[in-house]
Amino acid sequence: MDGFSHGNYWIDIVESYRKASAVSERIEHTHSAFILAVLSRIAQEAPENFLAYDKQKGVINMLLSCLATISKSFTHQKTEFLPVACRASEAIWSLMTVQSLDRLNVEEEECKQIVDVVAKALLSDKAVRYAFYICLREGSEDTKISTIRVIFFFNVFLAINIFQCICTSL
User: Fold this and answer.
1) Domain range enclosing 72
2) Helix ranges, 20-140 (H)
3) Could you say which of 36, 113, 140, 149 would form a disulfide bridge with 66 (CB–CB 3.0 to 4.6 Å)?
4) How far apart are CA 89 and CA 136, in angstroms?
5) Integer Cα distance of 41 and 36 in angstroms
């Protein structure tokens, strides 16, 4: 099996794990780390599959939810899930910029929706912000670059939205 060419299959498995009730915080973190690893890999290796499935199932929300869940383990000075969080940060950046890839047939609106979901998560979820902070502080150079780009892109996106709100209220 070539890994992740069957993206929908893997995402179905991820959904099954996500629906399983957590017996303990440790199991919840481990399950979330597994889900995050699978989703990050699909997002980086087959973004067109990820985006197609995201339209139906809201997979980007699942990715961010898992990122928030494992970030809670960082508060206990446990960094075993750090590599998974770093891959997720890189995957999120890949998805936010996927429209620039000529090989993909992705509409700009799809990418705006991804940016919107990430922006809302950064605004509303302290755990997601903390996960990005840890990736920025502890990640590899590639992870730090991706994380900085996500945060910068988010700030530009936020500034544009604020400017649009001001202009429409005039």
Assistant:
1) 7-169
2) 25-45, 47-57, 59-74, 82-96, 108-124, 126-138
3) 36
4) 9
5) 8
- List, as own/partner pairs, every contact residues 114-121 make where C-beta atoms lie below 8 angstroms and the sequence separation is at least 24, other chains included: 114/51, 114/54, 114/60, 115/153, 115/154, 115/157, 117/60, 117/61, 117/64, 118/60, 118/64, 118/92, 118/150, 118/154, 119/154, 119/157, 119/158, 121/61, 121/64, 121/68
State whether the Cα torsion 94-133-128-19 is positive or negative. positive
Q: What is the pLDDT of residues 70-90, one digit of tens each?
A: 888 777 666 778 888 888 888
Q: Cα(99)–Cα(106) distance, rounded to whole angstroms?
A: 6
User: Is position 18 within any domain?
Assistant: yes
Query: Which amino acid makes up residue 70?
Result: I
Q: Is 1 inside a domain boundary?
A: no
> What is the number of structural domains in the chain?
1
State how far the Cα of 103 lies from the Cα of 48, in Å rounded to an integer.
Answer: 10
pLDDT digits (tens, 9 = 90+) for 107-135: 666 667 777 888 888 888 898 888 888 88
